[in-house]
Specification:
The chain is an alpha/beta fold. 29% of the residues lie in helices and 32% in strands. The chain is globular, with a radius of gyration of 15 Å.
């Protein structure tokens, strides 16, 4: 999979565009004061760049060296600075209690790995910190608007309830939305959107 993402990110074009994910953009705009944000599976840096523009201290993590290279190009273009680390997310453990927000945008893994990543994400939040998540729902299977075409890698509402039960649910929906994020996320898509706050 690392080779897959390095290959996808190796072109001059940004696979998912240079603009931030719309749901993340909306939810960050509701937070009155910029703090520290962790973006897991950040890819080519579109969300990291947006958060940094708003004054957030950004830690971005992905396992693709090409993703980091593209993110740094975008940062230089926008005269921004953020931290970008290359790690296998299955082995990555963020600092406990550090972040005001953790962004999980279209991050898809097998159930056991997904549960571990979500647990670590919760642990990395300070009290009052938020998880902001958008992911493809299981009904996305067969659609051409992005996401893995393996049922086990897609989300259900029950997955969110189970993984984030200790958080206070603020936003939680299963929706059909129109995506326009580069050439790989375009068209009507079945997604789950979630915001939860650490108590």
């Amino acid at each position: 999979m690392k080779n897959f993402w390095n290959d996808r990110f190796s072109t001059q074009e940004y696979a998912y565009g240079e603009e931030p994910n719309e749901f993340l953009k909306i939810e960050i705009s509701k937070i009155s004061q910029a703090g520290k944000i962790l973006l897991l599976g950040e890819g080519e840096g579109r969300n990291a760049n947006y958060a940094a523009q708003l004054g957030w201290t950004v830690d971005a993590v992905d396992w693709s060296e090409e993703g980091k290279r593209k993110a740094e190009i975008l940062a230089r273009k926008n005269n921004l600075i953020f931290n970008y680390s290359v790690f296998d997310l299955r082995q990555y453990t963020p600092q406990i209690g550090l972040y005001d927000v953790v962004g999980l945008i279209f991050l898809h893994f097998e159930e056991e790995i997904r549960e571990q990543i979500h647990k670590k994400a919760i642990e990395s939040l300070r009290v009052g910190g938020k998880i902001i998540l958008e992911a493809y729902d299981k009904s996305q299977l067969g659609k051409s608007s992005g996401g893995p075409q393996e049922l086990d890698l897609l989300y259900s509402l029950e997955d969110i309830v189970n993984d984030f039960s200790e958080l206070e649910f603020e936003e939680f929906s299963q929706e059909t939305v129109y995506l326009n994020e580069g050439k790989f996320h375009i068209g009507d898509a079945s997604v789950i959107r979630f915001v939860g706050t650490k108590k």
